[in-house]
Amino acid sequence: MKILYSQIKQLIPSLAATPAEIGEALTMTGFMQESLEMVNYNGQPDVLLGFEIRQNRPDCLSVIGLTREIAAYFNLPFNLPPTTELTPAETEVPIRIETSAVRRLKAVKLQNISIKPSPQWLVDYLALYEINSINLPVDLSNYVMLLTGYPSHLMDYELLDGDTVWSINHQSREITTLDGTSVKLKDEELIIHDRHSIIALAGIIGTDYAPITEKTKIILAEMALYDPALIRRNVRALHVVTEASNRLSKNLSLVDLDYAFNLLINLLLDQTGGEIASQVVEDYKEKTEVKTIKFEPQLVSELGGINIELAQCRQLLSQLEFTVNDAQLPWEVTVPSYRTDIELPEDVVEEVLRLYRFDKLPSVLPALPATLDITPPLTKAKERWRDWLAFQGWDEVLSWTMVGLEDNALTNYLPWAIATVQNAINEDYPALRQTIIVSLIKQAHEYAKEQVPELKIFELGKVFGKVENSYQEAEHLGWLVGGGDRVIDDLRQTVSGFLAYSGVERVYFYPAKNIPAIANPYAAWEIIIGEEPIGFLAQLKEHYNDKIMATAEIDLEQLISYLQEHKMPAPTVEITQKLITLDANLEADDRRELGIKLQDIEDKLGRESLWSLAVIDEFSLPNGRCRYTIRAVYKELDDQSAKKLHLQVFGLS
Amino acid sequence: MLGDQILTELSTQIKEVGSEAELAALWHKYLGREGIIKAQVKALAQLPLEEKREQGPLWQRIQEEAQALFDTRAAELKKASEEATWQAEAQSLGLVPVKLGHLHPITQTIRKLNELFISLGYSIMEEREIETDEFCFQRLNVPLDHPARDMQDTFYLEEPNILLRTQTSSVEARVLANYAPPLKVVCPGRVYRNETVNKSNHFIFHHYQGVVVMPKISLSDLFGTFTALFQAIYGPEVKIRFRNKYYPEVEPGVGPDMQCFNCGGKGCSVCKGVGWIEMGGAGLIHPKVLTMAGLDPREWHGFAFGLGLDRWAMASYNITDIRTLLGGNLGYKPYHHENII
């Protein structure tokens, strides 16, 4: 919201503060200064200050609102522009309100209006706010909006057909707004219409029907406050944002509409020479009660962390036009009508403290009592894992979690559907990534473009999917590396090392069942811990700078769950007898079946006797099966006992 | 004597030997069955007993001294040969430097902050990125159609209820709902806002949220915590100011600013001429937020703060384009922090 320094001085004649001091004061009390421009206004050098207005202070989307804040801060008297009571005529105005979304409305008919161009001061004034001059009545309507924060709407009464009605639209139809934009209405829009046409999207913008032109003789002037949530929904649905909608989509005071309406009509009559030609129509069903809050003033000191005297609390509140009845505790604090944001004692505390200024409060690092450490194990583990990966030579990248549909389809190996965003700003990236691999490949493409010689990257992050209409996400770790012939072996070693470092005793790599299109189908494995797949490892079909690319990914949440259920026994043993190595052959369809057999053998052997079990050779049989040579190393057994056990568990006896 | 002459001759010849094979040949020449020395020893058998007694020990000494010459030379050759092998093996190993990896600037920034807060006894919480409207907005005192929703453009998976979190305050809402106070928690994480990507803005960025719930807490405690946080990042000389600002989830609300590091508060393009840079949002947790979490605001108070991490990371690592943080042109120089042979 912009405000002229000269206008502030006009409303607070005793103000001595400079524009910079005003800027600092409002910034510290809740209205961040955004700009300070030297301008020429009304033939005089002036300063135009700009402030960011808090979302809960629509009263300050006005010159009067901001000036009131300045007066409160500097504790100076403030003059509202004067108005006189209206003298209505007898004639009724045919207005109908058919919706409860109209919270308060005032309207009146004015006749013998002279439509002429605005005086230069008004044209220049509106230009400061980037509002084009139309004609004097319309400009005055905009002027009053800037001054008070209350938008109004003027209609050419003689162009209206029958009753002027406020209702909710339920038809699909198209309108053209005053600025010539075509807007398609769908449903649930608050509209003003007559028998013939739509006059306005209430609270947002007028249409090209019944506007004020040089031919206008009679004006129907209305000012209304609506259900701000409905205006917001209409604005979002129709994508029409205006100065009026910006104000009317917030909770402006119903009470203060009186003053703004009177000011508007006073100015119109004064500047255009017209007269009131009707009763003042008013629709104000649910009148606003005066708000009083029971307030314990010591709460200010408790929440501020500093002792503020009661007298000072009272003084600061009175500067802000709150009325304080301090006859007894708790105080009764009456809230000014324009402060729709004040509801609770804590709101009153903020008022006192912001005017006291936060920068006068002490800043002390508190010695807070100890609390339970609720850090999840995964969060702690991720930090250890990142360090381990970096020490192994892997560089961490973070990448976009939103990707193209096709990219997901090419890389996904998990049994879930794609989760998409309904309103993605970039249509090329509407989907949430299903794997880390998809992001890492994109990174590799960027690195290739930049001719980065070496590729050895990892990412820890979220992946997303949809299972039976339920959105799911999981923390994954992905690797991508470019290298020579041994790159797959090296990556498998890294994954195994990582899992061992994490506490997993046994890792298996079985030929993958779900192989994404980007992977070499002959070099793709499921990573298994326990009996469950935890990830995927593969050579990619594409290369990185003529190097083979290999990728792997594991589900870290699954890993943490596994680790919590399977505590790894300490690998340290005391060797009291020589180790005995014996080989045996096993037949299986594939590594998966072999793994199950080995698991069974391990279970039979138990930890007491087994040192290690490894596949040392693989031979394809004519029947399509494979023969695997298994090397078992036994501990704590003599030769004879080891051999006996070996023959027994491998079914050789 | 002949034996000494032979030893002198052997000493000369043995120095010229360059390999174990040559040494073996020379040994056969002198000490082999048909060797020069052996021949002399065999010839002793033809001598009279008296002479045999005199010559025998002398040739025994000659034999032993000759063998010692061979042993010494063999050791020398072996050592030379091993040196050559080691040298050749070492050369074949090459000079590949050890590569260490790097952690992402955002990770490192989070770690710096985590270190401080862990030392102050805080827990670290992370949560889901796909959130519900309830936890991203409503439980933070932002009901449907509240004007504060204008502050954040939201990505919806299923409007209006399923969305990508716009702030890590959603983690605060989850923590308050799931854990009993007292609580001290920080929550780093990725957030999403439906904004056009350019040099300064991204639709994916990173927040750092802090939440404390205690029987008593004040703005003074919040300011002290925030000051410690800024000092941890920027050093003890950093200048901070706290001003009033509106956030629906807190009351009173606080806008912490840092004096511009570029101009020292005089005003420049970095701080848009105001001398201060906005560094996030904070405040005392709104009584309605506590009530929605099932806490009695008369018994419990709290403070919360939130920071954007990306700009901090960019400033620390001299990154000028926010897209670099999540893009392919964030590089790590290979020999930085590495051991080079």
What does this structure look like?
The complex is a heterodimer of chains A (653) and B (341). Chain A is of the alpha+beta class and 653 residues long. Chain A has 5 domains: 2-74, 2-Layer Sandwich (Phenylalanyl-tRNA Synthetase, Chain B, domain 1), CATH 3.30.56.10; 95-283, Phenylalanyl-tRNA Synthetase, Chain B, domain 3; 292-359, 2-Layer Sandwich (Phenylalanyl-tRNA Synthetase, Chain B, domain 1); 377-565, BirA Bifunctional Protein, domain 2; 580-649, Ferrodoxin-fold anticodon-binding domain (Alpha-Beta Plaits), CATH 3.30.70.380. In chain A, 31% of the residues lie in helices and 28% in strands. A 7-stranded mixed beta sheet of chain A has the order 19-22-23-27-26-25-24, with helices on both faces. With 341 residues, chain B is α+β, with helices and mostly antiparallel strands. Chain B has 2 domains: 2-93; 105-326, Bira Bifunctional Protein, Domain 2 (BirA Bifunctional Protein, domain 2, 2-Layer Sandwich), CATH 3.30.930. Chain B has helices at residues 2-16, 20-31, 36-43, 49-93, 105-119, 133-136, 169-178, 219-234, 287-292, 310-316, and strands at 123-124, 130-132, 156-158, 162-164, 183-192, 204-214, 240-244, 250-259, 276-278, 281-285, 301-308. In chain B, helix 2 (20-31) runs antiparallel to helix 4 (49-93), helix 5 (105-119) packs across helix 8 (219-234) and helix 5 crosses helix 10. Residues 337-341 of chain B have low confidence and may be disordered. At the A-B interface, helix 6, helix 9, helix 11, helix 12 and strand 19 of A face helix 5, strand 1, strand 3, strand 5 and strand 6 of B.
